[in-house]
Amino acid sequence: MIILSIILTIREEIVCFLFLVFLICYYSFYKNNDENSDRKPFLKISFFALGHVIFDIVTVITVNNISIVPGLLNRILHIVYFCFGVLFIVEFLDYVILLTMSNKFLQKYRRTKFLSVILVILLSFILPLEYVEGRGTNYSFGPFLFACYGIFALYCITSVVLIIVHFKKLDKKMRLAVFPTTILMALMISTQVVVPELLMTGAGATFVCIGLFVTVENPVSEYLEQALWDNSTGLRNKNSFGKQMSVFEKKYRNKQLNIGFIICDMNGLKLINDNYGHAEGDRLIKAVAMILTDNLKNAYNVYRIGGDEFAVIYISPNDKIVNSEVENVRTACNNYKDSPIKLSIAMGYASGTGNFSEFMKIYNRADNNMYENKAAIKKLNPQFCR
């Protein structure tokens, strides 16, 4: 009965423990397979949250068994519990500073951030810590506890202020993750101070880790994001183009939009691959991608939709400006000297206004214009026909 009572008392902490262990193991497994990953910030936050939850469980057990647990041991365990809590909130502020402030400011913060842990240890020798019998569970109380919560609150408020002041710097995912979790953490700390028997700080730390993981740090979402990019050229790929068109379909099914497409196809790629090797062909595809991105400055996005095929989207295009940018591309190709044959791109442009049903017609016109341009280029450059 005693064991069952203890399990029921700490069931919230056990759930938090299991969640955090899963997140750390899952995240570490995927990131260990990613040579370019930096795992430290999220893993540090999660590790200290896990330590806080573990000692939350331990101290709940010891504080409910004061008669058999030595008072000094109980106090030491509570100090470790609060130190892990402070380490968690310190690392969370580090994470926020990393997102919002300069590296110089971050380095200054990192040189001093563990002073709060030293302060907690010093306060443990000065301020009393009491144990109160509650209706559901015994809990710690007293000046030392409130000093620790004051430190939590200070770091939490600082995080909120930094996020609000630098809100525009954060991308959408960061806004959805960091701001709500910080506010939630502040509310849970406040509730813990008012109703200490609730023991909510472990749950608050866990919610923060889950929020960051789901919205920002999930490695699977990174892989899904990578599936939308062409690793060779750094451009968005055919999957990304299809996804963008699906967005347009939903948004402009019954609405009008002025849209333009440029369809591009590199000339002579087979000739280059057959005579100079595929590595040379890949290098020139990258050169074409760079020329397109450098010269089509008003484009909404440039996509690599095939081996040597590219698609470009313009929103509310000015035809005169687009045609000028197309000529800039042709000039850049003519001026490109690091190629065994003349670098050349067939390009077709079309624009129009309509709902989504018209978009594909405009796209097809651009595609047809590209093939006409390709045929004209081949007449002037017979080597591309080989």
Shape: elongated
Q: Order of strands side by side in the largest beta sheet?
A: 3-5-6-4-7
Secondary structural class: alpha+beta
Percent range for β-strand residues: 5-15%
Order of helices and strands: HHHHHHEEHHHHEHEHHEEHEH
Low-pLDDT ranges: none
How many angstroms does the end-to-end distance come to?
A: 86 Å
Query: How confident overall, as mean pLDDT?
Result: 83
Q: Please report the number of helical segments.
A: 15
Task: Explain what this protein looks like in three dimensions.
β5 (301-304) and β6 form a beta hairpin. The strands form 2 sheets. Strands 3-5-6-4-7 form a 5-stranded mixed sheet. The longest helix is centred in the N-terminal third of the chain and has 30 residues, at 71-100. The protein has helices at 2-9, 11-32, 40-63, 71-100, 103-112, 115-126, 143-165, 172-194, 201-217, 219-226, 238-251, 269-276, 278-295, 319-335, 356-380, and strands at residues 130-133, 138-141, 236-237, 257-266, 301-304, 309-315, 345-354. The N and C termini lie far apart (86 Å). α2 runs antiparallel to α3 and α12 (269-276) runs antiparallel to α13 (278-295). The mean pLDDT is 83. With 386 residues, the chain is an alpha+beta fold.
Which descriptors apply to this entry?
alpha+beta; two-stranded antiparallel sheet; 11% strand
Give the structure's gist in a few sentences:
This protein has 15 helices and seven strands. The protein has helices at residues 2-9, 11-32, 40-63, 71-100, 103-112, 115-126, 143-165, 172-194, 201-217, 219-226, 238-251, 269-276, 278-295, 319-335, 356-380, and strands at 130-133, 138-141, 236-237, 257-266, 301-304, 309-315, 345-354. The protein is elongated.
